[in-house]
Design goal:
Length: 329
């Protein structure tokens, strides 16, 4: 099984200096690419000079995470693409359990390894932890992370398990399925596009799987911090994008309820004096309305829609019923 590890870069020389050596050291047999999103720093010169075995793909524009990978992967030949953030440290033997899982079940399309926090190494990392799920209204949560509550890794998720979505921080996908689905939806730009991709994979009848025997360490927020209102905008808007495109059931009810819940989140930001984040939610809704006709057209094209949730409302579970971790749900 041929694996290509593809790292999307945008002005990330410092991250490449820090994390690329571990990828090269522990990725025996894999081809390693840096796909550059029209950087203006000298990161590509640095890679060419210091790591000549790494292949370079230079995108013409910065199309964000989604378009960036779509453009770059057209130039990559492999059985499996590993989409790896530039702020991830990989570990010895990280690829072998993933290859074994793919070979054990031909219906597996996507795999995520255990995602741990680079800065607090005994804890899971926010972006994907031990594999993701969503509730009925499209809010994501993970084994190991529900909203802001992050669990310590005590081996409780040292398993292999079917999940709903895998984190884009480190996502393995069969190239044939990536191409079958036309890759990421470029309208997302960044954030939540991996959930949309995994949702479409599920609707096609393929599996998304977490493999706990493979471990990586993720910094998180290296490109766009959680405190940045732009991230709030993208997360709220893109979650609505994915819901409209892919959810089964009564769409009017789902979206109306979701908009109401987002409104509560906006009021919470107001009480916390996070006015820029409140504005970001408003902007996310206006952008959603502008894109709605196109989203509805994409919904019509996606004919197969399977049940996607096990929890009706993770918001209710967490904030009202005080269920703070995955195993209490």
């Amino acid at each position: 099984m041929k694996i290509a590890v593809v790292i999307l870069n945008w002005n990330g020389k410092k991250l490449l200096e820090q994390f690329l050596p571990s990828v090269i050291k522990y990725s025996e047999g894999a081809d390693i690419y840096v796909a550059d999103n029209a950087s203006t720093d000298d990161s590509i010169v640095f890679v060419k000079t210091d790591f000549p075995t790494v292949k370079i793909i230079q995108n013409e524009i910065n199309g964000g995470f989604a378009k960036g990978y779509n453009d770059a992967l057209k130039h990559v030949s492999a059985d499996v693409f590993c989409l790896l953030n530039s702020d991830v440290e990989v570990t010895k033997n990280w690829l072998a359990p993933v290859i074994k899982a793919f070979e054990s079940d031909s219906n597996i399309a996507i795999i995520q390894p255990k995602l741990l926090d680079f800065k607090n190494r005994n804890y899971f990392e926010y972006a994907g932890a031990a594999g993701g799920f969503i509730d009925r209204f499209g809010y994501p949560y993970c084994r190991g992370r529900v909203f802001q509550t992050i669990e310590k890794d005590t081996g409780q998720y040292n398993d292999t398990k079917t999940i709903f979505w895998a984190s884009g921080a480190c996502l393995f996908i069969k190239s044939a399925i990536y191409n079958e689905l036309d890759g990421f939806d470029a309208s997302f730009f960044a954030h939540m596009e991996e959930i949309d991709l995994c949702w479409r994979v599920n609707n096609k009848g393929y599996k998304v799987v977490y493999v706990g025997a493979s471990e990586v360490y993720h910094v998180g927020g290296a490109t766009l911090s959680n405190t940045n209102p732009k991230k709030t905008f993208l997360n709220f808007r893109n979650s609505l994008f994915a819901l409209v495109k892919n959810a089964n059931g009564n769409l009017f009810f789902l979206v109306l309820t979701r908009l109401f819940l987002d409104g509560i989140a906006g009021i919470k930001f107001l009480f916390e004096f996070k006015f820029k984040h409140f504005i970001a939610i408003l902007k996310s809704h206006f952008s959603f309305y502008a894109h709605l006709p196109g989203l509805l057209q994409k919904r019509k094209q996606a004919k197969n829609k399977t049940k996607y949730y096990n929890r009706t409302s993770i918001v209710w579970d967490y904030f009202v019923n005080r269920k703070k971790n995955y195993k209490s749900l």
